Amino acid sequence: RPASPTGEEPNPGSREVIRKAFQRQGIPESALNTTLNSLSEGTIRQYGITYKAWWSFCESIHESPFNVNSKLVTLFFEKLLSSTTNRFNAFNSHRAALSLISDQPIGRNMLVKRYLKGIFRQRPPAPRYQTTWDPQIVLDYLETTTGSDLKAQSFKLVTLLTLATGQRLQTISTIRIPNITMSAEGARVLISDFIKTTSPNSAQPCLHLPFFDAKPSLCAARCLQTYIELTKDLRSTDSDKLFVCYKKPHKPATKQTLSRWVKETLTSAGVDTTIFKPHSTRHASTSAADRKGLAIECIRKTAGWTSNSTTFAKFYKLPLAQTGNFLHTVFDQSEDN
Known about the structure:
Structural class: mainly alpha
GO molecular function: DNA binding
Radius of gyration: 24 Å
Number of strands: 3
Order of helices and strands: HHHHHHHHHEEEHHHHHH
CATH superfamily of the largest domain: Intergrase catalytic core
CATH architecture of the largest domain: Orthogonal Bundle
Low-confidence stretches: none
Protein name: Tyr recombinase domain-containing protein
Keywords: DNA recombination, DNA-binding
Largest sheet: 3 strands, antiparallel
CATH topology of the largest domain: hpI Integrase, Chain A
Distance between the termini: 87 Å
Strand order of the largest sheet: 1-2-3
Helix content: 40-55%
């Protein structure tokens, strides 16, 4: 078994912390990479936040970061509770990260479970948003935006796709040219890459974009065709990703890049992006579909939730943000008499 770090050694980074923990748990060296592949890059990055704080905590008390026991975990959580405003969701994520590198069943430990129940009652989970914005604000803006250059078309397409499908930006960022099929009805886009909802027993998403003849300038399928034609000579031969950066050398656009494009579009349209982040397109589009009477089954299927999922009802079914002022409405007598 590898020697235990003292906690005073530098944090080697999330992936290396997990690798060393797997070694200590007895996973053969030849099987380490395959075992690490069970974790997505997003999960490894997220757990890295926990490991950085945990490493610092262990260093302060001269303990090994791999000595993950119930007593140290509750002490660590109590320190975070007193020094941060984190809610239950964050502590639950920390629990998962520490369970991964522990050789004890921390997640099932009764002391830890009891402590987390106390955090749940003290700082219950809360949705990011209490309200959402009206997609029509952004659609009106996109309809009047006439830019035909690559930047304008890039911003328009990614925003239309998020609103037209209700999908996460992560999903939109994985679209590949060979997986796009055009027909007389519109576009069909198969998502073949691993995404957040990918699992051995689930089907990969297939996005359907029918032609929107009522307003061709807002037709996601036509905008997709235009973008493919505009970028066909810019895309490198070693990448078939749909989105490319609009600046030379036109590398494949990452999820973070697409997020910035959506944020800039929302800001230009008048959405308050100090409150609503790019991911809020998912809240806005699905809530709008619900307000207009679309069946919940169709909303779930389109946005990528399972048929029995309660996620939409809990976190995404939101009322529109109201801009009216109660006092002024009640006190204003200009329309009386």
